[in-house]
Predict the structure.
Amino acid sequence: MMQNKRIYAITGGIGSGKTLLSSFIRQAGYPVFSCDDIYAELAQGGNMVQQLESAFGNVTLADGSLDRKALAARVFGDKKLLGKLNGITHPAIMQQLFHLAQNSGGDIVFCEVPLLFEGGLQKYFDGVIVLLRPVKERVRAVMERSGMTEEEVLARIKNQYDYDSAELSKYCVVHNDGDAAALKEKIIKIIQNITKLA
């Protein structure tokens, strides 16, 4: 999508294994940037936080950073408010994401974009890797790392993009249905195919 760069998105629902997949790509020597990390950085203060404060009110902490928990609780389950939030955060995150990608070393860059399809962002990438995992395993993984209850995790999954019924044939679909070694083997093969295209 960018001059001299091939930029690939990595996406998938909560608990699908995106972080682990990204770690394998980094081990293979390729840069990986995370929208979650960029959001956390932008949430420390600045233009995006000011826009969110103007739009929602009472979403900043004493130090000027974004009260992410308060904001998330306010928009959760409300599609109109969520759309308003994404309309502010997505452009800011994507601008920074592509800035980092453009200034990184190498010709092939990967970007972890959890809300890729929700935001219609797939068109900005040269390719998309979609990570799928059985719901039971996703729930277990999120419960282990976050302390959320099964009901809370299932509510999050229900509120996200429905990968199971989506048409994904034009994307590179990876089934995370084995152990870490199996997932690593799958992504190494994908990287090999991508480098052949570069």
User: Anything to note?
Assistant: The chain has a mean pLDDT of 92. Helices lie at 18-27, 35-42, 47-56, 68-75, 79-102, 135-146, 150-159, 180-197.
